[in-house]
Amino acid sequence: MRTGPYRPLQLLAYFRRIDSLERALGQAQRLLYQDDLTPLLNRRGLRRACDHWSASAGEVSPQTCCVMLDLDDFKSINDQHGHPVGDAALLHFSKTLLQHLRQADALARLGGDEFALVLTNTMATDARQVLEHLQRVLAASPIAIVDKFVRLRFSAGIAERKAGEPLSDALARADTALIDAKRSGKSTVRLHAPLPHCGYQPQCTV
Predict the structure, then answer these.
(1) 85: Cα within 13 Å, side-chain hemisphere
(2) Which of 152, 147, 149, 145 is nearest to 81 (CA)?
(3) Closest to 137 (Cα-Cα) out of 149, 152, 117
(4) The whole model's pTM is what?
(5) DSSP3 helix / strand / coil % (the chain, rounded to 5)
(6) SS3 for 115-154, per residue?
(7) From first to last of its 206 residues, what are the pLDDT tens digits of the chain?
(8) What span, in angstroms and rounded, lies between the C-alpha atoms of 65 and 192?
(9) CA-to-CA distance for 193 and 170, rounded, in angstroms?
(10) What DSSP assignment string belongs to 170-200?
(11) What are 125-132's contacts with CB under 8 Å, separation 24+?
């Protein structure tokens, strides 16, 4: 058993080992809450963010909008061109949205071509404008697929969070609005009707 002082080279190796372990731990924690394909949060990361906001309700503005998004015709891209091209489309979509959202907003990929977005300090009418702007941005930045360019489109459902309402419940209402948007046609944005009363408690789908 060594009892003497460490030599300089031994100390250097020791600190390098600690630094390596800290980087590995940080990477593992990022992978736990980040989507494995895109730079977005995953479902677990979004749930963690919702839990954090719920625990510190005073930090969440009453004017917070929850949005559920779904890429239109994504299945046809996968079927016609294969999953690598589909993955490239998802990555392009994610990066494009991130570039035009604020740092305080939370964007997550829940799986496949389904995404969730939390817009802080935003009313429903403003959220609609944000989404329509994102639709125009995507239309202006098509992705190259084989020998042609494809413009990605999405449909979305919006729910404005009411005072005291859990974010998970607002996301559930946004999902209902998304279903209505998909039924109405492609590249459609729908707003969920306001809560009829404060006791409305849908099940969390996050």
Answers:
(1) 18
(2) 145
(3) 152
(4) 0.78
(5) 50, 20, 35
(6) EEEEECCCCHHHHHHHHHHHHHHHHHCCEEECCEEECCCE
(7) 455 555 666 656 655 666 555 564 555 566 689 998 999 999 999 988 877 766 655 555 568 899 999 999 999 988 988 889 999 999 999 999 999 999 889 999 999 999 999 998 899 999 999 999 999 999 999 998 777 888 899 999 999 988 878 888 999 999 999 999 999 888 999 999 765 544 433 333 44
(8) 11
(9) 11
(10) HHHHHHHHHHHHHHH-SS-EEEPPPPSSTT-
(11) 126/65, 127/65, 127/67, 127/158, 127/160, 128/158, 128/189, 128/191, 130/101, 131/67, 131/69, 131/156, 131/158, 131/189, 132/189
Site of tokens 């802080």? 120
Two structure tokens written together for 164: 């005291």
